[in-house]
Design goal:
The structure holds 2 protein chains of 2 kinds. Chain A is an all-beta fold. Chain A contains no helices and 11 strands. The chains are: A mainly beta, B mainly beta.
Chain lengths: 112, 116
Amino acid sequence: KQEVTQIPAALSVPEGENLVLNCSFTDSAIYNLQWFRQDPGKGLTSLLLIQSSQREQTSGRLNASLDKSSGRSTLYIAASQPGDSATYLCAVITGTASKLTFGTGTRLQVTL
Amino acid sequence: GAVVSQHPSRVICKSGTSVKIECRSLDFQATTMFWYRQFPKQSLMLMATSNEGSKATYEQGVEKDKFLINHASLTLSTLTVTSAHPEDSSFYICSARDIGWGSPLHFGNGTRLTVT
């Protein structure tokens, strides 16, 4: 059974800092990995999707890497802003049923 | 980009009543939609996979008679919480995938259900 863990569970940084969020998964036979953002009481916004054959994806200030063999992914946020404050979730698809297994999330707060 | 619309965003109902939540893919067709449940400060848990034109596939521990799923068209899936109880109070989110399983999943904004 796939298990996805995110470290740290919570993170508070001052504005402008670069930061890294970590995601690990137990079954390396994934099809892809997706990073999401969730604002309090809201749905999910897809940030980046990395296919299993890819090693990284970039979108603006966000960069996600994938090391499938070691079961790890990182989300790098450059020059953090207060608007980046949210919960960040990683999720992997394993198997043919397209089921997404979510991590436990990292609650990020960027302070002024 | 692909948009998934979920309605209602918030609902309060009395114990014993049923509540229907709709999930629509607005600009793409989705043969498969997924329903998730999220308790406070916890991650999302997959409840069931909704397949257009066939029965939904439920995850272990999810009561199919309590959480009725109907996927009548390529753009609409509904989740009905029957005979709701306070312990059913939760945040329910649907998602759908555009053509090709390699495409990202798009999520609705969720429905906050409170059963009193």
